[in-house]
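B., you asked whether I could sanity-check this one before it goes into the benchmark set. Here's the sequence:
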Amino acid sequence: MKITSKTTIGEIVADDYRTAAIFTKYHIDFCCKGYRTIGEVCRNRDIAENILIEHIEASKKSSVNQSFDYKTWPSEAIADYITKTHHRYVAEKAPVIIQYLNKLCSIYGSVHPELHEIHTIFSKAVLDLTAHMKKEELVVFPFIQQMIKSQKEGTYLQTPPFVSIENPIAILKQEHETEGGRFRRIAALTNNYTPPNESCATYKAAFVLLQEFEKDLRKHMHLENNILFPKVLEIEKSFEKAS
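And here's what the prediction gave me:
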């Protein structure tokens, strides 16, 4: 794709996930705020537009494997992948991180009081993410499957209690914004996940796990905000046109 000042960040990362590394380097949120254009971001951050685009184009030639071209996947496959990969990741890693944070707070909390805030923020994030994921697994994703089935079979699609898929999607995207803000705060409190010089192995491991958790969450939110949700909204529009 040709990148211009009017191209959105979400479109760029959806086209080639290798470009996410460039936005991360410049501290540009590509998952929750992927709707912003290159021009808008460069103006707000005082970044030379031509330099940013050059770096983005260079990243697309990187030898690093792009992994999967998620943009070409059917909506139901993306939803299934998110559930089995990213939802499972949260369920498996969150208890381990909380256990580490409990230990750090008890040993180092008096010397590093920021650990208590990190623990509070992360624990709240896990509670909200758990509810968020259940909402997707029990309500939103099943309705996506129902839409696709009706579309393929040409059958009537019953109006859901939330009227339009756009309504729960708007709520999910707002929840993504909340989590993005929480992890920006955690990154600030941990000095971008850099443990103190005197840190023990547990301290270092906890920060590594927190950083990996944020990285996984940002990809999770990117897949939904920039790829799955736009696809789903287009499917819903097809029913409106047919009626």
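One thing to flag: The chain has eight helices and no strands. Otherwise nothing jumped out at me.
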